[in-house]
Design a protein that fits this description.
With 238 residues, the protein is α/β, with parallel strands linked by helices. Helix 1 packs across helix 6.
Length: 238
């Protein structure tokens, strides 16, 4: 079983793969012997990036299932896969579509990748993916001003005061060396067999989770959430 599991989560197109392209050779050279799992929904060609680095990679496509639920359901198989390869470190890159989900477990090193060009308010939208991360990677820092970067860092620290912050330029690789050193200094986690999630997954199964297409309250079963309007008239009907 691998001695380290490192999770990179974040919204689509924030630069997770670009960061890993620069980070993985540094970890490999330091003896961490990584292998990579890429979790996506319908299609991914990122395995070509990792194979080009000479690293084993497996791709998991979740299809109609939430990718983070899909990942957690496959963690034991991923531990066994890394073990069969004789790899010390399992790197997982997952597509964070539902910002309420977080597939991070207690023993892994959990990271959240955040695009600095999105918005200064973007950190508030990420939920436990960010608030319970051990490290947070801020990408596309070359495309924002120093003042904007400081505002984002302040907001991130407000939401997660204990996480290590790493502003990077993923395309050029600037700043990734600091992240590599931080990860190398983390102690081995040992046996993951009794690992647990850091946060509960969102509730559900509703009718639409299992294939219902008809719209209307009479077709809704299971766990269903409804907007509470109170006594106000919704603005779109006024």
């Amino acid at each position: 079983m691998p001695s380290h599991v490192i999770l990179f989560s974040g919204a689509s197109a924030v630069g997770k793969t670009a960061v890993l392209r620069s980070l993985l050779p540094l970890l490999d050279q330091s003896g961490f012997s990584p292998c990579v799992c890429k979790i996506d929904c319908l299609h991914s060609q990122d395995d070509a990036v990792f194979h080009a680095l000479g690293l084993p990679c497996v791709t998991g496509l979740s299809g109609d299932i939430c990718p983070d639920h899909f990942l957690v359901s496959n963690l034991p198989e991923l531990w066994d896969w890394a073990d069969r390869l004789g790899r010390r470190t399992l790197i997982i890159e997952t597509a964070g579509l539902c910002h309420r989900c977080s597939p991070a477990t207690a023993k892994m090193a959990a990271g959240c990748v955040l695009d600095c060009t999105a918005s200064c308010r973007a950190p508030d939208q990420l939920g436990p993916m960010l608030t319970q991360a051990d490290f947070i990677v801020l990408t596309k820092t070359d495309m924002v001003s120093q003042a904007e970067l400081e505002i984002i860092c302040w907001r991130v620290r407000h939401l997660n005061p204990t996480a290590a912050l790493f502003p990077v330029d993923g395309l050029a690789g600037y700043g990734v060396d600091r992240l590599a050193l931080w990860l190398q200094e983390r102690p081995a986690c040992g046996d993951f067999a009794e690992d647990v999630l850091r946060h509960t997954m969102p509730s559900g199964v509703c009718s639409y989770c299992v294939g219902e297409q008809r719209v209307g309250s009479s077709y809704q079963q299971g766990i269903v959430g409804k907007i509470s309007f109170g006594e106000e008239v919704p603005s779109w009907t006024a």
